[in-house]
Amino acid sequence: MKILFWGTPEFAVPALRALEEEGHDIVGVVTRPDRPAGRGRQLQPSAVKAEAFESGVLLLEPESPRGPDFEEEIRDLSADVSVVVAYGRILTREVLDVPSKGSVNLHASLLPRLRGAAPINWSIARGDTMSGVTVMRMVEKMDAGPILFQIEEPIRPDETATELGIRLSEIGAAALVEALALMEAGVIEEREQDESAAS
Questions:
Q1: What contacts 24+ positions apart, CB below 8 Å, involve 23-29?
Q2: Separation of alpha carbons 73 and 172, rounded Å
Q3: How far is CA 161 from CA 83, 106, 128, 166, 195, in A?
Q4: Tens of pLDDT, residues 70-99
Q5: What tens digit of pLDDT does each residue of 22-78 get?
Q6: What is the pTM (predicted TM-score) of this model?
Q7: Are 65 and 89 in contact (CB under 8 A)?
């Protein structure tokens, strides 16, 4: 499939690599613009930008991923689907609907639990014993779209959020590959989230 990939931090890099290795055509990568970091406040590229640069993939770094000009720019890429992994900005309905098969997101929790930011940190802080990843269809409401694919993963005793995040990034990459294969085969099943269980 032709994929427009959206992501920013290190968590998103395994997913981008896995999609490339699976033979998908990455028609572009959207990431956040370089930000100041460290003591010298030097501009630093995102982890996803560095990975995309290595791969020679078309890179888009909009300050704001919205508006007619940006929509036209991504429409010209003719992506089948947008894949969003920790991009860091809310996407409008118009942007989500540009690809012919819509937009999907990888979220680091077993939705509908722990919607929103920092689900890995919250799972550790709450003392959860089980975590996982969810691939869902994106809608305008945060992390509320239909579930396409999930993988459960136990949280190890004394595991830190950083350690769990590294594991879930790899598990999430595999989940995305599987979900897109099912989508491409036309056999993906979408399951609405139970709003009463959302947190």
A1: 24/180, 25/1, 26/55, 26/57, 27/2, 27/3, 27/58, 27/77, 27/78, 27/79, 28/4, 28/57, 28/58, 28/59, 28/60, 28/74, 28/77, 28/79, 29/4, 29/5, 29/57, 29/58, 29/59, 29/60
A2: 28
A3: 24, 17, 12, 9, 26
A4: 999 999 999 999 999 999 899 999 999 999
A5: 999 999 999 999 887 767 777 888 999 999 988 889 999 999 999 999 999 999 999
A6: 0.94
A7: yes
